[in-house]
Amino acid sequence: MNDLSPNDLSPVIAADKAHVWHHLSQHKQYETVDPRVFVEGKGLTLWDATGREFLDGLSGGVWTVNVGYGRESIANAVRDQLLKLNYYAGAAGSVPGALFAQALTAKMPGMTRVYYSNSGSEANEKVYKMVRQIAARQHGGKKWKILFRDRDYHGTTIATLATSGQDQRAMQYGPYPDGFVRVPHCLEYRKQWDVENYGERAADAIEEVILREGPDTVGCLVLEPVTAGGGVITPPQGYWQRVQEICRKYDILLHIDEVVCGLGRTGTWFGYQNYGIQPDFVTMAKGVASGYAAISCTVTTERVFDMFKDDASDPMGYFRDISTFGGCTSGPAAALENMRIIEEEGLLENTVAMGERLVGNLRALMEKHAAIGDVRGKGLFCGAELVADRATKEPADEKQVQAVVADCLAQGVIIGATNRSIPGFNNTLCLAPALVVDADQIDRFSDAIDGALTRVFG
Protein backbone atom coordinates (compact mmCIF):
# COMPACT_ATOMS: atom_id res chain seq x y z
CA MET A 1 0.00 0.00 0.00
CA ASN A 2 1.13 3.58 -0.63
CA ASP A 3 3.03 5.05 2.33
CA LEU A 4 0.86 8.16 2.33
CA SER A 5 -2.17 8.13 4.60
CA PRO A 6 -5.62 9.18 3.31
CA ASN A 7 -5.17 12.54 5.05
CA ASP A 8 -1.95 13.15 3.12
CA LEU A 9 -3.85 12.61 -0.13
CA SER A 10 -6.73 14.98 0.58
CA PRO A 11 -5.11 17.79 -1.46
CA VAL A 12 -4.80 15.37 -4.39
CA ILE A 13 -8.49 14.52 -4.22
CA ALA A 14 -9.35 18.23 -3.99
CA ALA A 15 -7.18 19.04 -7.00
CA ASP A 16 -8.71 16.20 -9.00
CA LYS A 17 -12.22 17.30 -8.12
CA ALA A 18 -11.48 20.92 -9.06
CA HIS A 19 -9.54 20.42 -12.27
CA VAL A 20 -9.69 16.94 -13.88
CA TRP A 21 -12.28 16.16 -16.54
CA HIS A 22 -12.76 12.39 -16.18
CA HIS A 23 -13.53 10.05 -19.04
CA LEU A 24 -17.05 8.65 -19.36
CA SER A 25 -18.23 10.55 -16.31
CA GLN A 26 -21.19 12.77 -15.48
CA HIS A 27 -19.47 15.28 -13.23
CA LYS A 28 -22.69 16.43 -11.61
CA GLN A 29 -22.20 13.51 -9.19
CA TYR A 30 -18.97 15.04 -7.88
CA GLU A 31 -20.88 17.91 -6.35
CA THR A 32 -21.86 15.51 -3.56
CA VAL A 33 -19.22 12.75 -3.66
CA ASP A 34 -15.49 12.67 -4.28
CA PRO A 35 -14.11 11.06 -7.43
CA ARG A 36 -12.26 7.82 -6.84
CA VAL A 37 -8.49 8.29 -7.06
CA PHE A 38 -6.33 5.18 -7.31
CA VAL A 39 -2.84 5.46 -5.89
CA GLU A 40 -1.19 2.04 -6.18
CA GLY A 41 -1.50 -1.37 -7.78
CA LYS A 42 0.14 -4.77 -7.43
CA GLY A 43 -0.84 -7.79 -9.48
CA LEU A 44 -4.64 -7.54 -9.66
CA THR A 45 -4.96 -5.46 -6.48
CA LEU A 46 -5.61 -1.72 -6.41
CA TRP A 47 -5.68 0.75 -3.52
CA ASP A 48 -7.49 4.07 -3.66
CA ALA A 49 -6.78 7.33 -1.87
CA THR A 50 -9.04 6.37 1.04
CA GLY A 51 -7.03 3.21 1.67
CA ARG A 52 -9.67 0.82 0.27
CA GLU A 53 -8.47 -2.31 -1.51
CA PHE A 54 -10.03 -3.66 -4.72
CA LEU A 55 -9.61 -6.74 -6.88
CA ASP A 56 -9.52 -5.51 -10.47
CA GLY A 57 -11.50 -7.62 -12.95
CA LEU A 58 -11.09 -5.18 -15.84
CA SER A 59 -7.30 -4.85 -16.19
CA GLY A 60 -7.30 -1.12 -15.56
CA GLY A 61 -10.93 -0.40 -16.36
CA VAL A 62 -10.56 -0.74 -20.14
CA TRP A 63 -8.87 -4.16 -20.61
CA THR A 64 -5.30 -2.85 -20.75
CA VAL A 65 -3.04 -4.03 -17.90
CA ASN A 66 -2.57 -7.57 -19.25
CA VAL A 67 0.44 -8.53 -17.09
CA GLY A 68 -0.81 -6.84 -13.93
CA TYR A 69 0.29 -3.86 -11.86
CA GLY A 70 3.69 -3.21 -10.30
CA ARG A 71 5.95 -4.77 -12.93
CA GLU A 72 9.37 -3.41 -11.99
CA SER A 73 11.10 -4.90 -15.02
CA ILE A 74 8.86 -2.99 -17.44
CA ALA A 75 9.35 0.24 -15.50
CA ASN A 76 13.11 -0.30 -15.61
CA ALA A 77 13.07 -1.04 -19.34
CA VAL A 78 11.22 2.22 -19.95
CA ARG A 79 13.51 4.21 -17.63
CA ASP A 80 16.69 2.84 -19.22
CA GLN A 81 15.44 3.57 -22.73
CA LEU A 82 14.29 7.12 -21.88
CA LEU A 83 17.74 7.95 -20.53
CA LYS A 84 19.38 6.61 -23.68
CA LEU A 85 16.94 8.11 -26.23
CA ASN A 86 13.41 9.16 -25.38
CA TYR A 87 12.18 10.26 -28.79
CA TYR A 88 12.79 10.89 -32.41
CA ALA A 89 10.07 11.30 -35.02
CA GLY A 90 8.95 8.11 -36.74
CA ALA A 91 10.54 9.14 -40.03
CA ALA A 92 13.68 7.63 -38.47
CA GLY A 93 14.06 4.39 -36.59
CA SER A 94 14.97 3.43 -33.03
CA VAL A 95 16.46 0.34 -31.43
CA PRO A 96 13.32 -0.72 -29.46
CA GLY A 97 11.09 0.18 -32.40
CA ALA A 98 13.01 -2.10 -34.75
CA LEU A 99 13.35 -4.94 -32.25
CA PHE A 100 9.71 -4.92 -31.19
CA ALA A 101 8.48 -4.82 -34.79
CA GLN A 102 10.62 -7.88 -35.47
CA ALA A 103 9.41 -9.70 -32.35
CA LEU A 104 5.79 -8.79 -33.00
CA THR A 105 5.62 -9.89 -36.62
CA ALA A 106 7.32 -13.16 -35.63
CA LYS A 107 4.13 -13.90 -33.67
CA MET A 108 1.96 -13.02 -36.69
CA PRO A 109 2.69 -15.25 -39.72
CA GLY A 110 1.94 -13.39 -42.95
CA MET A 111 2.24 -9.93 -41.36
CA THR A 112 5.49 -8.05 -41.90
CA ARG A 113 5.21 -4.28 -41.34
CA VAL A 114 4.49 -2.21 -38.22
CA TYR A 115 3.36 1.43 -38.20
CA TYR A 116 3.57 2.99 -34.72
CA SER A 117 1.15 5.46 -33.18
CA ASN A 118 -0.19 6.00 -29.67
CA SER A 119 -3.82 4.85 -29.37
CA GLY A 120 -6.20 2.25 -30.72
CA SER A 121 -8.34 4.92 -32.33
CA GLU A 122 -5.33 6.30 -34.15
CA ALA A 123 -4.16 2.83 -35.25
CA ASN A 124 -7.57 2.18 -36.80
CA GLU A 125 -7.67 5.59 -38.42
CA LYS A 126 -4.36 4.77 -40.11
CA VAL A 127 -5.99 1.77 -41.76
CA TYR A 128 -8.90 3.88 -43.01
CA LYS A 129 -6.44 6.34 -44.54
CA MET A 130 -4.44 3.52 -46.13
CA VAL A 131 -7.60 2.04 -47.62
CA ARG A 132 -8.66 5.39 -49.06
CA GLN A 133 -5.19 5.99 -50.50
CA ILE A 134 -5.11 2.49 -52.01
CA ALA A 135 -8.49 3.22 -53.59
CA ALA A 136 -7.12 6.42 -55.11
CA ARG A 137 -3.90 4.84 -56.37
CA GLN A 138 -4.97 1.32 -57.30
CA HIS A 139 -8.67 1.51 -58.15
CA GLY A 140 -9.24 4.85 -59.79
CA GLY A 141 -10.92 6.25 -56.69
CA LYS A 142 -13.27 3.27 -56.34
CA LYS A 143 -13.25 0.66 -53.53
CA TRP A 144 -13.20 3.45 -50.95
CA LYS A 145 -16.00 2.26 -48.67
CA ILE A 146 -15.30 0.59 -45.34
CA LEU A 147 -17.76 -1.90 -43.87
CA PHE A 148 -18.14 -2.27 -40.11
CA ARG A 149 -20.28 -4.53 -37.93
CA ASP A 150 -23.21 -3.76 -35.69
CA ARG A 151 -22.15 -3.82 -32.00
CA ASP A 152 -18.41 -3.48 -32.78
CA TYR A 153 -16.43 -0.45 -31.67
CA HIS A 154 -13.24 1.00 -33.18
CA GLY A 155 -12.43 4.29 -31.48
CA THR A 156 -13.22 7.84 -30.46
CA THR A 157 -12.20 9.96 -33.47
CA ILE A 158 -14.88 11.16 -35.87
CA ALA A 159 -13.86 8.63 -38.54
CA THR A 160 -13.64 5.70 -36.13
CA LEU A 161 -16.97 6.70 -34.58
CA ALA A 162 -18.35 6.56 -38.12
CA THR A 163 -17.57 2.84 -37.87
CA SER A 164 -19.12 2.44 -34.44
CA GLY A 165 -21.75 -0.27 -34.22
CA GLN A 166 -22.70 1.15 -30.84
CA ASP A 167 -25.18 3.91 -31.53
CA GLN A 168 -25.12 5.55 -28.11
CA ARG A 169 -21.34 6.03 -28.29
CA ALA A 170 -21.71 7.80 -31.64
CA MET A 171 -24.77 9.84 -30.65
CA GLN A 172 -24.49 13.66 -30.80
CA TYR A 173 -21.09 13.64 -32.55
CA GLY A 174 -22.31 13.61 -36.15
CA PRO A 175 -22.68 14.28 -38.95
CA TYR A 176 -20.21 11.62 -40.00
CA PRO A 177 -18.23 11.28 -43.22
CA ASP A 178 -19.58 9.16 -46.06
CA GLY A 179 -18.40 5.72 -47.07
CA PHE A 180 -18.79 3.79 -43.81
CA VAL A 181 -21.43 1.08 -44.06
CA ARG A 182 -22.85 -1.18 -41.33
CA VAL A 183 -23.24 -4.95 -41.61
CA PRO A 184 -25.26 -7.16 -39.20
CA HIS A 185 -23.88 -8.54 -35.93
CA CYS A 186 -23.20 -12.24 -35.34
CA LEU A 187 -24.60 -12.73 -31.82
CA GLU A 188 -26.25 -16.13 -31.98
CA TYR A 189 -28.06 -15.63 -28.66
CA ARG A 190 -30.00 -12.85 -30.38
CA LYS A 191 -29.92 -14.33 -33.86
CA GLN A 192 -31.65 -12.55 -36.72
CA TRP A 193 -32.19 -15.72 -38.81
CA ASP A 194 -33.62 -19.03 -37.64
CA VAL A 195 -31.24 -21.30 -39.55
CA GLU A 196 -29.06 -24.27 -38.68
CA ASN A 197 -25.75 -22.78 -39.84
CA TYR A 198 -26.12 -19.40 -38.17
CA GLY A 199 -22.43 -18.48 -38.43
CA GLU A 200 -22.37 -18.89 -42.20
CA ARG A 201 -25.69 -17.05 -42.51
CA ALA A 202 -24.40 -14.10 -40.48
CA ALA A 203 -21.35 -13.93 -42.74
CA ASP A 204 -23.53 -14.17 -45.86
CA ALA A 205 -25.32 -11.05 -44.60
CA ILE A 206 -22.03 -9.21 -45.12
CA GLU A 207 -21.98 -10.38 -48.74
CA GLU A 208 -25.50 -9.07 -49.18
CA VAL A 209 -24.36 -5.61 -48.08
CA ILE A 210 -21.38 -5.80 -50.45
CA LEU A 211 -23.65 -6.65 -53.37
CA ARG A 212 -26.06 -3.87 -52.41
CA GLU A 213 -23.29 -1.28 -52.24
CA GLY A 214 -21.45 -2.65 -55.27
CA PRO A 215 -18.29 -4.79 -54.86
CA ASP A 216 -16.27 -2.28 -56.88
CA THR A 217 -16.96 0.39 -54.21
CA VAL A 218 -16.00 -1.64 -51.11
CA GLY A 219 -12.35 -1.57 -50.11
CA CYS A 220 -12.22 -2.95 -46.59
CA LEU A 221 -14.12 -4.79 -43.86
CA VAL A 222 -13.20 -4.02 -40.24
CA LEU A 223 -14.19 -6.46 -37.48
CA GLU A 224 -13.24 -7.29 -33.91
CA PRO A 225 -12.27 -10.97 -33.52
CA VAL A 226 -14.46 -11.05 -30.41
CA THR A 227 -16.83 -8.10 -30.08
CA ALA A 228 -15.80 -6.35 -26.88
CA GLY A 229 -17.88 -3.47 -25.53
CA GLY A 230 -20.84 -4.55 -27.63
CA GLY A 231 -21.49 -7.51 -25.36
CA VAL A 232 -18.47 -9.86 -25.45
CA ILE A 233 -19.71 -11.64 -28.58
CA THR A 234 -17.79 -14.76 -29.60
CA PRO A 235 -18.17 -15.65 -33.29
CA PRO A 236 -20.41 -18.61 -34.16
CA GLN A 237 -19.00 -21.69 -35.87
CA GLY A 238 -18.27 -21.20 -39.55
CA TYR A 239 -18.43 -17.42 -39.38
CA TRP A 240 -14.81 -16.44 -39.82
CA GLN A 241 -14.04 -18.93 -42.56
CA ARG A 242 -16.95 -17.62 -44.61
CA VAL A 243 -15.94 -13.99 -43.94
CA GLN A 244 -12.47 -14.73 -45.31
CA GLU A 245 -13.95 -16.35 -48.41
CA ILE A 246 -16.18 -13.34 -49.08
CA CYS A 247 -13.31 -10.86 -48.72
CA ARG A 248 -11.14 -12.79 -51.14
CA LYS A 249 -14.00 -13.24 -53.60
CA TYR A 250 -14.52 -9.48 -53.93
CA ASP A 251 -10.91 -8.32 -53.35
CA ILE A 252 -11.82 -6.64 -50.07
CA LEU A 253 -9.08 -5.99 -47.53
CA LEU A 254 -9.72 -7.58 -44.12
CA HIS A 255 -8.93 -5.43 -41.10
CA ILE A 256 -8.95 -7.14 -37.68
CA ASP A 257 -9.19 -4.75 -34.74
CA GLU A 258 -7.23 -6.42 -31.92
CA VAL A 259 -7.12 -3.35 -29.67
CA VAL A 260 -8.85 -5.35 -26.91
CA CYS A 261 -8.05 -8.97 -27.81
CA GLY A 262 -4.40 -8.55 -28.77
CA LEU A 263 -1.39 -9.72 -26.77
CA GLY A 264 -2.90 -12.73 -25.07
CA ARG A 265 -6.39 -11.74 -23.95
CA THR A 266 -8.07 -14.72 -25.67
CA GLY A 267 -5.35 -17.27 -24.90
CA THR A 268 -3.51 -16.80 -28.20
CA TRP A 269 -1.26 -13.89 -29.11
CA PHE A 270 -4.11 -12.45 -31.16
CA GLY A 271 -7.80 -13.21 -31.22
CA TYR A 272 -7.95 -13.86 -34.96
CA GLN A 273 -5.45 -16.69 -34.52
CA ASN A 274 -8.19 -18.75 -32.87
CA TYR A 275 -10.06 -18.89 -36.19
CA GLY A 276 -7.50 -19.71 -38.88
CA ILE A 277 -7.79 -16.53 -40.95
CA GLN A 278 -5.20 -14.28 -42.62
CA PRO A 279 -5.93 -10.55 -42.33
CA ASP A 280 -4.47 -7.72 -44.38
CA PHE A 281 -4.40 -5.29 -41.45
CA VAL A 282 -4.21 -5.93 -37.71
CA THR A 283 -4.45 -3.06 -35.23
CA MET A 284 -3.61 -3.19 -31.54
CA ALA A 285 -3.02 -0.98 -28.50
CA LYS A 286 -4.13 -1.56 -24.85
CA GLY A 287 -2.32 -4.79 -23.90
CA VAL A 288 0.67 -4.22 -26.20
CA ALA A 289 2.58 -2.63 -23.31
CA SER A 290 0.02 -3.35 -20.56
CA GLY A 291 -0.46 0.37 -19.98
CA TYR A 292 3.12 0.99 -18.87
CA ALA A 293 3.63 3.27 -21.89
CA ALA A 294 1.42 4.54 -24.68
CA ILE A 295 1.74 2.57 -27.90
CA SER A 296 -0.40 1.28 -30.74
CA CYS A 297 0.49 -0.60 -33.90
CA THR A 298 -1.00 -0.88 -37.35
CA VAL A 299 0.42 -4.11 -38.79
CA THR A 300 0.14 -4.97 -42.47
CA THR A 301 1.15 -7.60 -44.96
CA GLU A 302 4.02 -7.00 -47.35
CA ARG A 303 1.44 -6.84 -50.16
CA VAL A 304 -0.22 -3.82 -48.54
CA PHE A 305 3.15 -2.22 -47.79
CA ASP A 306 4.23 -2.63 -51.42
CA MET A 307 1.19 -0.69 -52.62
CA PHE A 308 2.84 2.43 -51.20
CA LYS A 309 6.24 1.98 -52.85
CA ASP A 310 5.40 0.59 -56.28
CA ASP A 311 6.04 3.91 -58.00
CA ALA A 312 8.87 5.85 -56.42
CA SER A 313 8.51 8.58 -59.06
CA ASP A 314 5.10 9.57 -57.69
CA PRO A 315 5.64 12.30 -55.08
CA MET A 316 2.20 11.55 -53.61
CA GLY A 317 2.52 7.77 -53.74
CA TYR A 318 3.86 6.97 -50.28
CA PHE A 319 1.78 6.90 -47.08
CA ARG A 320 1.89 10.59 -46.18
CA ASP A 321 1.03 10.26 -42.50
CA ILE A 322 2.68 11.02 -39.19
CA SER A 323 1.91 10.19 -35.58
CA THR A 324 3.91 12.49 -33.34
CA PHE A 325 4.04 10.16 -30.37
CA GLY A 326 4.62 7.15 -32.58
CA GLY A 327 8.23 8.30 -32.28
CA CYS A 328 8.38 7.71 -28.53
CA THR A 329 10.76 4.90 -27.64
CA SER A 330 9.13 4.08 -24.31
CA GLY A 331 6.23 2.23 -25.98
CA PRO A 332 8.21 -0.41 -27.86
CA ALA A 333 10.67 -0.73 -24.97
CA ALA A 334 7.79 -1.53 -22.62
CA ALA A 335 6.17 -3.78 -25.23
CA LEU A 336 9.31 -5.90 -25.60
CA GLU A 337 9.45 -6.56 -21.87
CA ASN A 338 5.68 -7.11 -21.75
CA MET A 339 6.01 -9.79 -24.45
CA ARG A 340 8.89 -11.45 -22.61
CA ILE A 341 6.81 -11.68 -19.44
CA ILE A 342 3.87 -13.24 -21.28
CA GLU A 343 6.17 -15.85 -22.82
CA GLU A 344 8.38 -16.69 -19.85
CA GLU A 345 5.56 -16.81 -17.30
CA GLY A 346 3.30 -18.95 -19.51
CA LEU A 347 0.51 -16.40 -19.44
CA LEU A 348 -1.15 -17.64 -22.63
CA GLU A 349 -1.58 -21.04 -21.02
CA ASN A 350 -2.80 -19.45 -17.78
CA THR A 351 -5.30 -17.40 -19.75
CA VAL A 352 -6.80 -20.53 -21.29
CA ALA A 353 -6.99 -22.37 -17.96
CA MET A 354 -8.33 -19.45 -15.91
CA GLY A 355 -10.71 -18.45 -18.70
CA GLU A 356 -12.23 -21.92 -18.66
CA ARG A 357 -12.61 -21.69 -14.90
CA LEU A 358 -14.27 -18.27 -15.14
CA VAL A 359 -16.73 -19.35 -17.84
CA GLY A 360 -17.45 -22.52 -15.86
CA ASN A 361 -18.16 -20.49 -12.72
CA LEU A 362 -20.47 -18.14 -14.61
CA ARG A 363 -22.35 -21.05 -16.15
CA ALA A 364 -22.78 -22.53 -12.69
CA LEU A 365 -24.27 -19.21 -11.58
CA MET A 366 -26.61 -19.43 -14.56
CA GLU A 367 -28.11 -22.55 -13.00
CA LYS A 368 -28.77 -20.59 -9.82
CA HIS A 369 -29.83 -17.19 -11.17
CA ALA A 370 -32.57 -16.85 -13.78
CA ALA A 371 -31.29 -13.33 -14.45
CA ILE A 372 -28.39 -14.78 -16.44
CA GLY A 373 -29.58 -15.49 -19.96
CA ASP A 374 -26.29 -16.32 -21.65
CA VAL A 375 -22.60 -16.75 -20.83
CA ARG A 376 -19.96 -16.09 -23.48
CA GLY A 377 -16.21 -15.87 -23.51
CA LYS A 378 -12.82 -16.61 -25.00
CA GLY A 379 -9.82 -16.80 -22.70
CA LEU A 380 -9.92 -14.10 -20.04
CA PHE A 381 -12.58 -12.10 -21.81
CA CYS A 382 -15.98 -13.18 -20.54
CA GLY A 383 -19.52 -11.85 -20.45
CA ALA A 384 -22.81 -12.76 -18.80
CA GLU A 385 -25.90 -11.29 -20.46
CA LEU A 386 -28.60 -10.43 -17.93
CA VAL A 387 -32.29 -10.75 -18.77
CA ALA A 388 -35.61 -9.87 -17.19
CA ASP A 389 -37.15 -13.07 -18.56
CA ARG A 390 -35.06 -16.02 -19.70
CA ALA A 391 -37.84 -17.47 -21.85
CA THR A 392 -38.41 -14.29 -23.88
CA LYS A 393 -34.81 -13.04 -23.56
CA GLU A 394 -36.10 -9.61 -22.60
CA PRO A 395 -32.98 -7.64 -21.58
CA ALA A 396 -32.53 -6.70 -17.95
CA ASP A 397 -32.96 -3.02 -17.20
CA GLU A 398 -29.69 -1.13 -17.47
CA LYS A 399 -30.15 0.29 -13.97
CA GLN A 400 -30.30 -3.24 -12.54
CA VAL A 401 -27.19 -4.26 -14.46
CA GLN A 402 -25.32 -1.24 -13.11
CA ALA A 403 -26.62 -2.08 -9.63
CA VAL A 404 -24.88 -5.46 -9.91
CA VAL A 405 -21.64 -3.69 -10.86
CA ALA A 406 -22.05 -1.26 -7.94
CA ASP A 407 -22.75 -4.11 -5.51
CA CYS A 408 -19.56 -5.87 -6.58
CA LEU A 409 -17.62 -2.63 -6.14
CA ALA A 410 -19.01 -2.34 -2.61
CA GLN A 411 -17.56 -5.82 -2.03
CA GLY A 412 -14.15 -4.61 -3.22
CA VAL A 413 -14.41 -6.31 -6.62
CA ILE A 414 -14.29 -4.36 -9.89
CA ILE A 415 -16.27 -5.74 -12.82
CA GLY A 416 -17.81 -3.96 -15.82
CA ALA A 417 -20.91 -3.93 -17.99
CA THR A 418 -22.02 -2.59 -21.34
CA ASN A 419 -23.04 0.95 -20.56
CA ARG A 420 -24.80 3.52 -22.75
CA SER A 421 -23.59 1.79 -25.88
CA ILE A 422 -26.44 -0.14 -27.51
CA PRO A 423 -29.99 1.14 -26.94
CA GLY A 424 -31.97 -1.47 -25.04
CA PHE A 425 -29.09 -3.92 -24.80
CA ASN A 426 -26.74 -2.51 -22.19
CA ASN A 427 -27.20 -5.69 -20.20
CA THR A 428 -23.96 -7.72 -20.32
CA LEU A 429 -21.60 -8.03 -17.36
CA CYS A 430 -17.96 -7.99 -18.51
CA LEU A 431 -14.85 -9.51 -16.96
CA ALA A 432 -11.31 -9.22 -18.30
CA PRO A 433 -8.84 -9.70 -15.43
CA ALA A 434 -5.08 -9.55 -15.94
CA LEU A 435 -3.55 -12.65 -17.46
CA VAL A 436 -1.75 -13.39 -14.16
CA VAL A 437 -5.03 -14.08 -12.34
CA ASP A 438 -5.16 -17.22 -10.18
CA ALA A 439 -7.95 -19.65 -9.32
CA ASP A 440 -8.76 -18.05 -5.95
CA GLN A 441 -9.18 -14.66 -7.59
CA ILE A 442 -11.37 -16.13 -10.34
CA ASP A 443 -13.60 -17.62 -7.65
CA ARG A 444 -13.74 -14.31 -5.83
CA PHE A 445 -15.08 -12.63 -8.98
CA SER A 446 -17.85 -15.19 -9.40
CA ASP A 447 -18.67 -15.15 -5.68
CA ALA A 448 -19.09 -11.37 -5.77
CA ILE A 449 -21.40 -11.62 -8.79
CA ASP A 450 -23.38 -14.37 -7.05
CA GLY A 451 -24.04 -12.15 -4.03
CA ALA A 452 -24.81 -9.11 -6.17
CA LEU A 453 -27.34 -10.98 -8.33
CA THR A 454 -29.08 -12.24 -5.21
CA ARG A 455 -29.39 -8.76 -3.76
CA VAL A 456 -30.41 -7.03 -7.00
CA PHE A 457 -32.69 -9.65 -8.58
CA GLY A 458 -33.68 -11.70 -5.53
Kindly, what is the distance between the CA atoms of the first and last residues, rounded to a whole number of angstroms?
36 Å
Can you give the helix content as a percent range?
25-40%
> How many domains?
2
Query: Which CATH top level class of the largest domain fits?
Result: Alpha Beta
Largest sheet: 7 strands, mixed
Q: Decide which structural class fits the backbone.
A: alpha/beta
Instruction: Please give the number of β-strands.
Output: 16
Kindly identify the CATH topology of the largest domain: Aspartate Aminotransferase, domain 2
SSE order, one letter for each helix or strand: HEEEHHHEHEHHEHEHEEEHHHEEEHEEEH
Q: If strands are numbered along the chain, what order do they take across the biggest sheet?
A: 4-10-9-8-7-5-6
Nearest-angstrom radius of gyration? 22 Å
| Mean model confidence by pLDDT | 96
Poorly predicted sequence stretches spanning 5 or more consecutive residues? none
Based on the structure given, which CATH architecture of the largest domain is correct?
Answer: 3-Layer(aba) Sandwich
Output the number of helix runs: 14
Strand content: 15-25%
InterPro entries: Aminotrans_3, Aminotrans_3_PPA_site, PyrdxlP-dep_Trfase, PyrdxlP-dep_Trfase_major, PyrdxlP-dep_Trfase_small
Keywords: Aminotransferase, Pyridoxal phosphate, Transferase
Family: Belongs to the class-III pyridoxal-phosphate-dependent aminotransferase family.
Protein name: Aspartate aminotransferase family protein
